[in-house]
Amino acid sequence: MNVSTDATIPMSLGNSEGSSAERDATDPLREFRDLFTLPPDVIYLDGNSLGALPKATAARVADVITREWGTDLIRSWTSNHWIDAPQRVGAKLAGLVGANAHEVIVADSTSVNLYKLIVAALQARPGRSVVLSEPGNFPTDLYMIESALRTMNAGHTLNLVSRDVLAAAITDDTALVVLTHVHYKTADVYDMAAMTAAAHARGAMVLWDLSHSVGAVPIDLNAANADLAVGCGYKFLNGGPGAAAFLFVADRHHSVLESPLRGWMGHARPFAFADGYEPAPGVHRFLCGTPSILSVAALEVGVDLHLQADMQQLAQKSRELAELLIDGVSERCARFGLELVGPPRGAPRGSHVAFRHPDAYAIVQALIARGVIGDFRDPDVMRFGITPLYLRFCDIDRAVEMLEDVLQTEAWREPRYQVRAAVT
Ligand SMILES: Cc1ncc(COP(=O)(O)O)c(C=O)c1O
Cα 285–289–293 angle (5° rounding)? Predict the structure, then answer.
């Protein structure tokens, strides 16, 4: 694919003053949009709970089904390298998160990976009894901490402290800090290196949830001296619904940390079928059961696609699209009571923008009916995902127009937009 990396285009893109049409025409990432299947009448601003479908995914998954499974059958574990897929895709993913290839593996869901790493970290910090996190962290992170503490039944407590005082709350009794790098609602972003340094200064470890960061913002785990991380494959990585997740364990912890879920795929020699468990070396021990090959194959397409993009260009375009949306909403929709949530314009942020409104649910439904797909987060937040690989500046303009129209006409008051669906 011919993706422009023209050195004459400055990193700032240099065109943020132009019209959206001009900005789209000179966007160095513009050719990526064509690699995705996007319905023509949809502006996809999901924020980001399901990334769009890469065009290459259907053919790749069809090949895995018809040839690798249908024809090659069980031989595929070796001949089509199914057995190495978690490590292979993990190694590729490492390039997106600033890790070494042997520090990342694709496995399970983010929730399960959280559980495995929380227990492993607590067992590696005996004598310390506190896990720190923040109120309003993504629920599964808090639930998985609770699950780990219940299972361990070793007297640990979970302490939830708001982010402005969190670093100061780390003490010599803190075993682990569990934080989401980019907040799923607000797009607030932590300074990973600073928080990690604060934890290390007191002998604690940090576990980062990268679900809303990976593929969306630059991440450098090793530069931040990070210990542990997990993340989703189905959001910005475009791995498909319920895609396999990933986990990172820094090399220095490899010989110490052990998975509490001693499945056979994390055994040093699974096909020795030994009665006793012996952990595989390195991050490999955090595999549990047989990998979901169809899911990992789909994820690999999304990861490969991201590896072709320049992360700094992605981040720059993400900022510019977010600012266009913030400016548009503040000019055209603020009079209807919309309030920006999270970082102010120009401040570091993740790749979504959230606004608060008492009728956010109905407004989002009315927008979806018009083809502008954002999402709602309880109780009053509308969240719009910024995916620079396939969004255009003109899409943001159109979305703002639609939002203004929904608010101006009060279309959202229609009864059909008030009915809560199971998934928001
Ligand atoms: C920050 C964060 N962590 C974890 C999850 C859930 O991950 P999984 O469904 O893979 O367990 C989500 C889902 O939206 C999320 O936003």
Answer: 105
